[in-house]
Amino acid sequence: MCLYVSHVPTKFNDSLVVPAQKMLYTSRFGLFRTVYFMAEVSQAGFLVPSYKGDYLKHPLLPDAALARGLIHSFNRNAPNAMFYLNRGWALFKSYSIGVCAYGYSSDNVSRAIYVPAADKTKQSVERLKFIKNIKNKEGDYEKLLDSDLIPKRVKEALEFHKKNYDMIMSLLE
Fold this sequence. Notes:
Blueprint: E1 3-7, E2 17-26, E3 32-34, E4 46-47, E5 65-66, E6 71-75, E7 89-103, E8 107-114, H1 124-132, H2 140-146, H3 152-172
């Protein structure tokens, strides 16, 4: 799914963890897959694109179209999210991690996403509590990187997000 940029987070900490809802297809075998690319959500409940994505210089411009190397989700309680539902698809509460931009359709794109319903590990309750407690304050970025509850691929995506954000802010100065 594509997103047309309405705005980007103005502070890096505001982009760390954002409550969202992700549209997924669930199979009768209990697998969670994305609707368009059928990418499987990991057993730990995380979805990270295999393509890391480019450094995003263009999200600063409204109406830029973003699709590659990012994960699309709807903001919580987005009124239009139900419009996109189809047979076999469902909306799941989730948490966008490393939000790059927000769109006009009450949606966002991020570097990774956590879907608690897809987390089948023994750490699921502890992980959900940890992610819910990230309030996008100073020091939360380091907490995410230092935590054993966050997989290595998600940490790499967050580090890439930080480098990209710093680069964009340096262009604005």
